[in-house]
Amino acid sequence: MVAALTTARLGKSVVLVEPGRHLGGMTTGGLGYTDFGNKAVIGGISRDFYKQVGKHYGKEEAWTFEPHVAEQVYKDWIAAAKVRVLFEHRLQRVAKERGRIRSIVLERVPPDEAGAPAAKAMESDAAVVVAGMFIDATYEGDLMAGAKVSYTVGRESAEQYGEPLNGVRAKTPSHQFIVRTDPYVKAGDASSGLLPLIQAGDGGKPGSGDRSVQAYNFRMCLTKNPDNKLPIAPPAGYDEKRYEILGRYFDALATEAGKKPTLGMFLKIDMMPNGKTDINNNGAVSTDFIGENYAYPDGDWAARSRIWKAQQEYTRGLLCYLASSPRVLEDVRREMQLWGLCKDEFADTGGWPHQMYIREARRMVGRYVITQADCEHKRVAEDSVGIGAYNMDSHNCQRIVKNGAVENEGDVQVRPTGPYPVSYRAMTPKAEECENLLVPVCLSASHMAYGSVRMEPVFMALAQSAATAACQAMEEGRSVQEIDMPRLQRRLLEAGQVLTYSRPAR
Questions:
Q1: Alpha carbon 405 to chain centroid, angstroms
Q2: Cα 393 to Cα 412: distance, rounded to the nearest angstrom
Q3: Please, are residues 317 and 324 in contact by the beta-carbon 8 Å criterion?
Q4: What tens digit of pLDDT does each residue of 434-482 get?
Q5: Which of 56, 142, 215, 345 can pair with 288 through a Cys bridge, CB separation 3.0 to 4.6 Å?
Q6: Dist. CA 73–CA 55, nearest whole Å
Q7: CA–CA separation, 262 vs 413, rounded Å?
Q8: For the chain, first and last CA: distance in Å?
Q9: Can you point out the beta strands (E) in 319-418?
Q10: How far is 64 from 50, CA to CA, in rounded Å?
Q11: Is the CB of residue 75 less than 8 Å from the CB of residue 128?
Q12: pLDDT digits 0-9 by tens, 125-183
């Protein structure tokens, strides 16, 4: 949305392709509790967005908000800029010639009632888009992959880029089982097999790379308001036995002094305006569907649709379990029963978020790979087009068994040494791979550094920079790799972007 808006404001024609029915991805899909790291480094259209949302609530800025309020800001902006939007279209194939994308073919795909991507396209209604420049601002990076640009999925080894935090973790202290919990179908008997929601294997050698992808979830917008509340229906074929590991965990907690369970141990409930929530994963067993998303980044649409629906079914079942199972502490059950979906949010999907939180999918391997060294200021990119500031944040990647007990593996929460510049080269492919594509979301970063970059305010800032660069490349008659970098940075600063950061004097 920001890339298209920027392009239109710079006087170029633009088409915005949206596979679903809604603009805004996670910003309008339930993530109202903004992850920003440091507000001082958020500028340009990204900052304008939070100011515009603030106006709705009678504030200068708002960093917590209801989904429909965020979406209305986007709708108003797109309408004012007269941006053409192709809803319910997705990429089918890419036509490339002599290192440049010439056109893309789109297929028409209305999402199903669950909000999931359609497994199959409609038989007609294909569209061809011919353009001088292309921006892949999706969470999945399908245009990047279709253009045969190098990318990776999963975790690099700690050795590959010299990143002690990357790869399989020897210890995962956060979002972990805090008491020993038996993982076997028959407690204590490894030969009886593993309970559901636990993966086979030892998780891999610490520090090694793998194809594991940090867990996805839905950011749930719930309410206690009886006039605005919808029931949370269980999924079809709901079976409590699927959540036996959660029941075991409650049993184990009950035997430990000082470990009385609360709902907050299983759901991170952040309040939004008007009594609504942004609920995120928290603790050992929560809304993260650990280990069930590995096939998503490179999957076809049928595979992605299955994963999306499985994530929704898992989350519905989890919330129903917390509200109804006799294994759950009565206080926790009573509190969970107070919550329901919102009638006035996500109306076309029955109150369920229209966007799954795809925390990480493909990542380009471009001209510059952002790594832990950037986050720790051990190297500083001079071609800054935005600033990262959030934690190096990876959610768990595996749920495995160690020493006869269940463990989560992969969660990392480490602060950078301070806000750091994001290199323009990290948004551009290698010149020999594609000359007219910019990738501000699935950009070139290691798994560990991507955990810091991957925040919605940063994506908006980078998208504005990408669109400005694309327009400039057309004006200069150059590839995206060859544009006048000092000129681009001047233009970004004039547009209110933040490209450097100095600590305030004490």
A1: 30
A2: 5
A3: no
A4: 999 999 999 999 999 999 999 999 999 999 999 999 999 999 999 999 9
A5: 215
A6: 10
A7: 23
A8: 38
A9: 340-342, 363-364, 384-388, 392-394, 398-402, 405-409, 412-414
A10: 9
A11: no
A12: 789 999 999 999 999 999 999 999 999 999 999 999 999 999 999 999 999 999 999 99
3-state helix, strand, coil in the chain (%, to 5): 30, 20, 50
How far apart (Å, rounded) are the C-alpha atoms in residues 254 and 119? Answer: 44
Do residues 396 and 214 lie in contact, with contact meaning Cβ atoms separated by under 8 Å?
Answer: yes
Contacts (Cβ under 8 Å, ≥6 apart) of 265: 282, 283
Q: Could you please report the per-residue DSSP string of 239-305?
A: -GGGGHHHHHHHHHHHTSTT----GGGTEEEEEEGGGEEEEEE-SSSSS--TTS-TTTTT--HHHHH
Q: What is d(CA 467, CA 488) in angstroms, rounded to the nearest whole number?
A: 11
CA 364 – CA 368 distance, rounded (Å) = 10
Q: Does pTM surpass 0.85?
A: yes
Q: What is the pLDDT of residue 259?
A: 83
Q: Could you give the C-alpha distances from 269 to 36, 220, 254, in angstroms and in order?
A: 18, 9, 23
- Judge contact between 480 and 469, C-beta under 8 A: yes
Rounded-to-integer distance, Cα 282 and Cα 455, Å: 18
Residue 256, token pair as written in the block: 């430990």
| Per-residue exposure over 129-164, b if at least 16 CB sit within 10 Å of its own CB, e if not | eebebbbbbbbbbbbbbbbebebbbbbbebebbebe
Exposed, middle or buried: residue 226 (CB in 10 Å: 0-12, 13-18, 19+)?
Answer: exposed
Of 298, 344, 18, 259, whose CA–CA distance to 151 is shortest? 298
* Mean pLDDT along residues 250-259: 88
For 31, 58, 66, 491, the CA distances from 273, given in Å and listed in that order, are 13, 12, 7, 36
Residues 386, 294: Cα–Cα separation, whole Å: 30
What are the start-end ranges of the H helices in 412-498?
Answer: 447-453, 456-476, 485-494
**Strand, helix or coil for residue 219:** coil
- Residues 33 and 263: their CA atoms lie apart, in Å, by 19
Q: What's phi and psi for 403, nearest 5 deg?
A: 55, 40
| Nearest Cα residue to 87 out of 109, 71, 70, 68 | 109
Name, in order, each residue with C-beta under 8 angstroms of 294's C-beta and a sequence gap of 6 or more: 154, 211, 212, 213
CA 82 to CA 9: how far, in whole Å?
Answer: 10
Residue length of the chain:
506
Opening angle at CA 82, ends 78 and 83, nearest 5:
65
Which ranges in 127-168 belong to alpha helices (H)?
Answer: 142-146
CA distances from 408 to 173, 229, 476 (A): 9, 33, 51
Residues in CB range of 266: below 8 A, 6 or more apart? 246, 282, 283, 285, 286, 322, 332
